[in-house]
Write the structure tokens for this entry.
Amino acid sequence: MSAARKRVAVVGVGTMGSQAAWRLTARGAEVVGYDRFAPGHDRGAAGGETRIFRSAHFEDSRYVPLLRHADALFDRLQQETGRELRRMTGCLLMGPAGHHQMATVLESIAEHGLDHEVLDAGTLAKRFPQFRVEDGDAAVLDRRAGFIRPELTIQTAARRAEELGAVIHRYTPVREIVPGAHGVEIRTDAGREHFDTAVVTVGPWVDDLLPDLPWEVDIRRLISAWYVPTTDAWSGEERPAFIRTAPTHCYGLPSPDGVSVKLGLSRALHRPVDDPHRLDRTVRPEELDVFTELVGRYLPDLNPDPVRLSVYMEGYTASSRPLVGPLPGAENVVLLAGFSGHGFKLSPAFGGIAADLALDGTSPRPVGFLSTLGRTEA
Ligand SMILES: Cc1cc2nc3c(=O)[nH]c(=O)nc-3n(C[C@H](O)[C@H](O)[C@H](O)COP(=O)(O)OP(=O)(O)OC[C@H]3O[C@@H](n4cnc5c(N)ncnc54)[C@H](O)[C@@H]3O)c2cc1C
């Protein structure tokens, strides 16, 4: 059977699955998607109006070529659909000048020639009055950066896939994936369907569907909190997304409607999720203490009483590198999981890689450092 005529199941049409469905249909595959809810819902890893896009990576510069590919595919999806999925407002990485993430971001900028500015504490304070700066702070402004609209992006990619011929079964949880010598069977409450290959992108539900996975994906509960400005400091022309490296790693984004500013915390501060079907979406007052402290210390022009709180889930691997590749012993089941808090910006690239792996068994993209093949990570 030619690659173009392969029948591929996409299990989980969320962040990664919607992009995989788009890229698979764009390559001529016959695609059937399944989601336990509907594309664009807010019960998993996506939701909350915004996600940061950035070109410079402070975790690992090996992501930069993938970010470039994602960048081009975001533009292509925007052109094909006429929807504004992203806005380039820049992203400020701030913190003590000697912090190791500052060094990694500068390395990735130098290695890949990325568009940026380095700002000292004085310039930072003058140009971005919305942030309080401390002695010894520095910042890097990544100019090919900004915010992505997650709900719109997922729905747009899923709709584009449907326009190109995909069938998406909404509110249809997959109960079991049964690989065999001649393909893969997908079992739902409605019956069984046979495919050449399956792409599994179930995000925080990965252990629920694949309990025997040889790698640990730690599911965490992430709180997002929105704050309203008390002064005009947030109304200037420059309203970049921001990340503060230390002493508490946090990030934030001005809301697209200009009403508020969203704040989120780093992995270390997230509680584990025992059962993704029973996510505790209630935020206790004491969970806000660290947010209140950060607002008071670094974002003094925001009212410290949040106007909105939301809770999401995300899967983390020990190395923070996602699992991308075939399941052990099942070449025709391609897994993408464990995006460890930084998957959205890369999602169109991972959708393309999922399509390559499902149709060709390999990808020309540099994903060796993420591959499930030979991966020993606990
Ligand atoms: C609060 C928060 C902030 C973040 N900020 C950023 C950021 O600024 N920048 C960035 O790049 N990344 C960010 N991330 C990370 C990014 O959002 C995730 O890495 C990404 O959304 C993960 O996508 P996914 O496809 O794995 O999961 P999801 O988007 O959750 O998709 C999984 C899908 O599978 C479906 N599903 C589950 N089980 C089944 C089943 N059995 N059958 C059928 N369907 C099923 C679900 O309904 C869901 O639609 C953030 C994450 C969170 C939680």
Notes: The longest strand covers residues 218-227. The chain has two domains: 3-49+150-211+319-370, 88-147+218-316.
